[in-house]
Structures are given as C-alpha cells and as structure tokens.
Amino acid sequence: MPSDAPPGGPTYHQDIAPLLARSCTTCHRSGGIAPLSLTTYEEVAPFAGLIATSVAERTMPPYNLDNSGTCNTYVDALWLAERDIATIDAWAEAGAPAGEPTDEPQDGPPGWEPERVDLTLEMPTAYSPSEPIVDDYRCFILDPGLTEDAFVTAFEVRLGRPDVVHHLTLFALDTAEDEQGAEALDAAEDGPGYTCFGDTVVPSRWLVGTGPSDKGGRLPAGTGLRIGAGRKTVLQMHYNWQNGTAPDQTAVDLTLEPSVPKEAFVARVADLTLELPPGQPAVVESEVMPLEGDFTLWGVWPHMHNLGKELRVTANHPGSEVCLAQVNRYNFHWQRFAFYEEPVQVRAGDVLQITCTYDTTGRDTPTTWGFGTDDEMCIGFFYITPTG
Ligand code: HEC
C-alpha cells in the first residue's frame, strides 16, 4: 500500500485505528460475528475502499435508527459522526497511508457488567442451529421460579457461541394460557425449543434483548419491567450459521428489584391491516393511534420483516410534531431497543402516527400481516411509563 500521501492527512495509525476500535472491532475481529477482521493495518488497508463506501452509505456500523438528530438521538447508538465518515473517506482516497505506529492502546467501547446478579435464566441444554436454515429463530421456555413479582432493572447476556448467535430477546408470558400455547408449540417439535420467527408466536411481553455484539445494560434509571410470580419466560434466539452450527447454550443474568419507582411497559403502535401489492419498489402503509393517557416514552424498537425499507413514527399534537423514530435503511437483522438520550413526554389526545415503506419487487402475490418469514409487520414498540 502506498504511503506517499500528502503530509497532514489522516493515517491508519493516527486516525483510522482508534476510530475502528471504537465503532467496528467489537464485531470485526477474529471470533467476532462479522466476516472480516479489521484490527491491523494489514487487515484493514485492502478494504479501505469498501470500508469508506459502507460508512458513507451508513450500512456500517449496523444501526436501523437515524441518530443524526434530524429525528432523535439514542443512548449508545452505533452511529458515526459526519466528521468520522469524512476522515475515512479522505484516508481511502489518499491510498490508505499507514502513518507512524503509536503506543496508544486501541480501546474498544467500555465493557459493562451488572452490579448484582439475582437470577440467571439459562437454556436447559445446548442447541445446534438447524442446517437447512441460514437464519434459525428458536424459542426456549425458561422458568424463573419466582415466588413474588420482581422487576428487571439490568441484565447481561452470556452467549454460549458468540459467533453463531446473532441476537436474542427475552419475553415474559403473562398468563397460564400463553404458557400452555408456548408449551404446545415446544411439544410439537423435535429437540429443545420451538421455531419462532420474529416473535414468540404466542402473546408475550418484551423484557430485555441484545443486538449482535452487545452484552447487555441497564434499563432507564428508576424503571423496570415486571416478571410475574410463578410466570414463565421465553428466550428467543436468532442463530445465523454463516459461521457454522456449533451447539450454543446461552444464559441471561438479571438484576431484579422487588419494586421500582416506575413500572415500565412495552406498548406498540402498529398497522395491522397490511395489504401490500406485489412488484412495487415502495409500498407505503400508515396508521394513526390517539393516546388515552399521559406517558413518558423512554425508548423505541422499530419492527418490520424482510420487505421493510423505511419506517417513521411521530407524536403529533395540534401545531407540533415530535419525531420518535426514523429508519432510512431497515435491516431485519439489526433490530434492537434504543433508548432516547432525552425521554419524550406525550399526553392524552396526542396522536401517534406510524408509516412503513416496503419493497415488494421480489414478490408475485400480495403480502399481508402475519408472523411468518414471508408475512409483514409494521410496528413501533415503545418502552413507556405512565405519568401524572
Ligand atoms: C454490531 C456488529 C458490527 C459492527 C459494530 C460493525 N460491523 Fe461491519 N459487518 C458486520 C456484519 C455481521 C457484516 C456482514 C454483512 C452483514 O451481515 O450485513 C459486516 C460487514 C461489513 C463489511 C463488508 C461489506 C458489506 O457491506 O458486506 C464492511 C466493509 C464493514 N462491515 C465495515 C464496518 C466498519 C468500517 C465498521 C465500523 C465503522 C463496522 N463494519 C461495524 C457487523 C458489524
């Protein structure tokens, strides 16, 4: 690689390595979930052009929500500043100069550990992702064995095989009927757990989840999500076996409190009446929902399936609009809850509006709402607490 770039321009050792360590190498290292390791000059330089393109198009780092501030901003967003994108571009344009090595340690984002582990929910046996399916979604019913209600306030995930687990979500089952539904699905399939694309198939409530490469965290201070006494949970694992089908046995450590100042709920605004005609690059669906109470919105999780391209949620009251979520390039694989840097207050009478855009050019029959891989959804999940 040429190192005769004009003096003063960005170099790998001075500028690029620290940036990649901050935003990329948690996934892009040997044993990480991404296909290429980006931890040395020799690894990075041949891909300079591809790296510059992927960050300019914002396909990397992978993050569904627009964090630029034109809509909103989120805690710990995987999002590069415009200035960093320009630095990478200038470096690639200059022929990817190495520069002088420094002694500076290249630190990644700080790790996180819960202060206290009160309950561990672990898959009862190891599970090997199924061979014929590239993306295997598997649900495991786990019994917390609680004798009193408790509130989840923080969590840490311990992945059995970080290279085969894509992401996971833990859900609460709130009724005996929902538990029986899940148990029937489990009993109807061979091996541990049952197949569950996108969701738990039976009614359930989100508790905690991690996207690829993140390990957990704290729920917003003063809030927590209830697990009912005697109730069960479902751990939904998404395995992507581009790295193989090694058996995985994952555990989730939870910090619990007997009570919290504000019990949080996961509510949703959704368009349930999807009727997407085939063969169109941009089919737009929209729904409104008037609010019946006052709430604090702490976080959002945009959800569509594989045809989803764009999604926007706003809260409207006469004369003003607050943008809650803007997704410009939806990717089913990069879903997660994102908490607002500034929680949003909404009031009774405000109207939530959700708009989803789909690309149906690959379909020759209409697509409707449903739980299957080939069905679609249009949902904004919100982490909320009632106010006032
Ligand atoms: C959360 C994990 C994660 C992070 C963080 C991440 N990547 Fe990736 N990256 C992936 C995965 C997984 C792939 C494989 C393709 C896919 O699944 O989309 C990938 C693919 C790529 C590719 C291959 C080109 C392509 O489009 O397929 C490039 C280049 C890349 N990433 C660059 C970066 C850079 C530069 C950063 C940091 C600014 C970064 N990535 C941050 C997970 C990540």
TrEMBL record:
Alphabetically ordered keywords of this record: Disulfide bond, Heme, Iron, Metal-binding
Origin: domain of life: Bacteria
Pfam families: Cu2_monoox_C (PF03712)
Disordered: annotated segments: 95-114
InterPro entries noted in UniProt: Cu2_ascorb_mOase-like_C, Cu2_ascorb_mOase_N_sf, Cu2_monoox_C, Cyt_c-like_dom, DBH-like, PHM/PNGase_F_dom_sf
Domain Cytochrome c: 3-96
PANTHER family: DOPAMINE BETA HYDROXYLASE RELATED, MOXD1 HOMOLOG 1
Protein's recorded name: Cytochrome c domain-containing protein
